[in-house]
Design a protein that fits this description.
CATH class of one domain: Mainly Beta
CATH topology of one domain: Beta-clip-like
Strand order of the largest sheet: 1-5-9-11-10
Structural class: mainly beta
Shape: globular
Largest sheet: 5 strands, mixed
CATH superfamily of one domain: SET domain
InterPro entries: SET_dom, SET_dom_sf
Helix content: under 10%
Number of strands: 16
Distance between the termini: 44 Å
Protein name: SET domain-containing protein
Organism: Polarella glacialis (Dinoflagellate)
CATH architecture of one domain: Beta Complex
């Protein structure tokens, strides 16, 4: 099975090849009053204000120029992909091919205002999740970074030229809901090399307890605008 990818330029919306395949019981959502319901794809898209996808989308011109960016430096005969691990080495190749996500182990939750800032939504563990588990791929549109945009949903790929990101602003999955913690993060986004292309996966850095919020560190570049604040997020009581 070859991992599906989509061409953004050819899509009026999102085709079935990259569209999300959710559990038949939906995805758990906990509202601000503590009520838990199950959301289908339409409900998630309305909640997240984006189109839900399980695989990457590419701008046509970016995919055509893949020879210039798909094999990031430094490379050598013994390390053909440089310092970027392969999906096989990380144990996430099948997850990427099938667009799997740990839906049954996670819950979307409304967080609200923290330290005067409306955080909005977050992703929480419903059950204990072991260290080194892969939650899923960080999906979105692979495109060139647009410096003029203040984009909160972009993850930089490890290439210098062109400066590429996976942007989950308009297309994405539950990974786009994962919040930042300065020193309490328990997961991380990692670039992997898979079937000749770069992908980004979310891997659990340490064991996560049931009810704990899944958090990553956004990196120094994200906090360069002074208007952004670093918020220490905790699970709601």
């Amino acid at each position: 099975m070859v991992t599906p990818t989509g061409r953004l330029d050819r899509l009026p919306g999102c085709d079935s090849a990259v569209g999300a395949s959710l559990p038949k019981d939906g995805v758990a959502f906990r509202d601000s009053d503590g009520t838990t319901t199950a959301l289908d794809k339409h409900g998630l898209e309305e909640l997240m204000s984006c189109i839900f996808i399980s695989h990457l989308l590419f701008e046509e011109r970016i995919l055509q120029g893949r020879d210039f960016w798909s094999f990031p430096p430094p490379v050598s005969p013994t390390m053909p992909f440089g310092s970027v691990p392969s999906s096989e080495a990380l144990g996430c190749a099948e997850l990427l091919r099938r667009g799997h996500f740990m839906y049954e182990s996670t819950c979307v939750s409304h967080i609200g205002v923290v330290d005067g800032v409306d955080v909005g939504l977050g992703l929480f563990a419903q059950v204990a999740i072991p260290a080194n588990s892969c939650l899923g791929e960080y999906t979105g549109v692979v495109r060139q970074r647009r410096q003029e945009e203040d984009d909160n949903y972009s993850y930089a790929l490890p290439v210098v030229e062109p400066d590429l990101v996976v942007c989950a602003r308009d297309y994405g999955n539950l990974c786009r809901l994962i919040n930042h913690s300065d020193d309490g993060w328990n997961a991380e986004l990692l670039s992997v090399h898979h079937e000749g292309l770069l992908h980004v996966v979310c891997r659990v850095a340490r064991a996560i307890a049931a009810g704990e919020q899944i958090l990553i560190h956004y990196g120094a570049r994200y906090w360069l605008p002074e208007s952004r604040r670093c918020i220490s997020l905790k699970s709601p009581q």
